[in-house]
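I had to read the description of the data format several times before I understood it. In essence, backbone conformation is discretised, so a fold becomes a row of integers matching the chain in length. I therefore recommend that a typical entry be quoted early in the introduction. For illustration, here is how one protein appears when written out as sequence plus structure tokens.

***
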Amino acid sequence: MTRPLRIGFVAGEYPPQEGGLGDYTRELACALLARGHDVQVVTVRERTTDHRPPTTEAPSTGPSSLVLGHSQDPPPPSPRMWGDQRGEPERGESLEPRVLRVVERWGWGAWPTLRRVLDGVDIIHLQYQTAAYGMHPVANALPWLIRRFGFPARQPHVVTTYHDTRIPYLFPKAGRVRDWATDAPARWSDLTIVTNPEDRARLLPVARRLRLIPIGSNIRVTADPARRRDYRARWGIGDATPLLVYFGFVNRAKGADTLMQALTHLRDTGLPARLLMLGGQVGASDPTNRAFLAEVRALADSLRVTEAVTWTGFLPEAEVSEALTAADVAALPYREGVSLQRGTLMAALAHGLAIVTTRPSAAAPTDDAPSLVDTVNAILVPPDDPRALADAVARLWADPARRARLGEGARSLSAAFRWDRIAEQHEAAYQDLPWA
């Protein structure tokens, strides 16, 4: 690193809100702080009813730990504020970024607030995912607004990370305008970061500069494998019962309906499989998740597998790690094929689970980045094929040695997605920007 940078993240959601974008932002911000950079996160005021307790103050690791309350608007950051924000952590603690919860709601009215609190940074780094911003196009326009109106103290570089390329709502019958809006952050950013080869192929023709940097697991591996039997007992699972785990929000793209049908096939063949639906069910960002969750629950009832399914709800990170350690197989039947943009996949890899997931989309380009390899670090089956999913799980259950080899392959692959490595790649990409 040639010099520390002042980095301002813009995140549509942030813990204690439940959501992958917020968890990703926190992990990356902490890792960049550990490398000596000054980092703050600007996000929306907390109004959700998440199960996590609202945080008003982070661990006392110095001024960087301050999380501003709902009724406070901070003054514009000064060089002194930025320079003082890091503290020395106690052994075992991690640095936390300053979090400014100052956006009333995501809309055009957010721009004056963002312009005020981000004045003085070297880099504004937008974490882009349409659902996290309520499908409002302000997230699409933010790089253009920064270039058009500028900042009093200095003109920052604009970086955008695409967490998905979902088309924003905008307005009915927008047609090609929606595609243009999705590409807009890449067109107006100094640097575009994507997390998977599919998004790189889409954005390469329009981005000024483009880097592929994968995501990591937002669940630290803290569970003790020697206590696996205890963790299973918490859910009433004995050694002779196959335990499948699905981790993440329930939405149509993740194929939870396919999983319920696969569970039915397993039980119809005499295998007494149980399914742990792990984590919060719908999150804070996407209201369409609730309707699909109701569909999945109704499907489980109609298939008569409801009693074989345990919904954990939101759990603390340590308990998520314990549940992943308790499971025999992670079943992740993504409808559009597996992708490295899935934080839930990264958590399963890091915990060394035998994974059954879906083959990448046929449109996905080949790439020299670390990837899933069928039978080496995962079993890949066709999307929307519950019988293929069930058959793969049954074969793994019948072959413990194969499950163990697959888990070791997953754990080995996860080393490529450590947050310190991800932060180092971001740092290199930042430094490659033209600096005066």
In short: The two ends are 17 Å apart (CA to CA). The domain at 6-216+418-431 is CATH 3.40.50.2000 (Rossmann fold). The first strand starts at residue 6 and ends at 11. The chain has two domains: 6-216+418-431, 225-417.
